[in-house]
Design a protein that fits this description.
Structural class: mainly beta
Order of helices and strands: EEEEEEEE
Strand order of the largest sheet: 1-8-7-3-4
Largest sheet: 5 strands, mixed
CATH architecture: Sandwich
Mean pLDDT: 91
Helix content: under 10%
CATH class: Mainly Beta
CATH topology: Immunoglobulin-like
Number of domains: 1
Distance between the termini: 61 Å
Strand content: 35-45%
Low-confidence stretches: none
């Protein structure tokens, strides 16, 4: 008889289809709430980092929550602001968002698959 416990640690997967090369990534704001539905104040000791890569691990972009790093943390919000004019297209890119908590724990909160398409108007 086994006393094994199986855990499933699976961050939320965000699939972005038909993202136009040159558009500002990512126009949506992600809301972050606790179990009671209250905003988590991410300005209070949290930091974030994210690396965007091709399937072969070629790094396309590295984002952080440092000033002008491409990730803005707010009271219950995560926003991205990145120029994508140098991103390859067409292709699929992969990323994950890692958060460092006020206690120093590193947690992966989101995973991304981004299908980048070429645009007619050059960025």
């Amino acid at each position: 008889m086994s006393n094994a416990v199986e855990l499933n640690y699976s961050p939320v997967l965000v699939k972005i289809k038909d993202f136009p090369k040159g558009d500002t990534f990512l126009p949506d704001t992600f809301l972050v709430k606790d179990e009671q539905g209250n905003n988590i104040d991410l300005t209070a000791g949290y930091s974030a980092s994210m690396r965007i890569e091709k399937r072969d691990s070629t790094i396309i972009a590295t984002l952080t929550s440092a000033p002008l790093g491409g990730i803005a943390l707010g009271n219950g919000t995560i926003e991205f602001n990145v120029n994508t004019s140098t991103w390859p297209a067409p292709c699929t890119l992969y990323a994950d968002l890692q958060m460092t908590t006020p206690g120093g724990k590193i947690e992966t909160w989101l995973r991304f698959e981004i299908e980048v398409i070429r645009t007619i108007t050059p960025p």
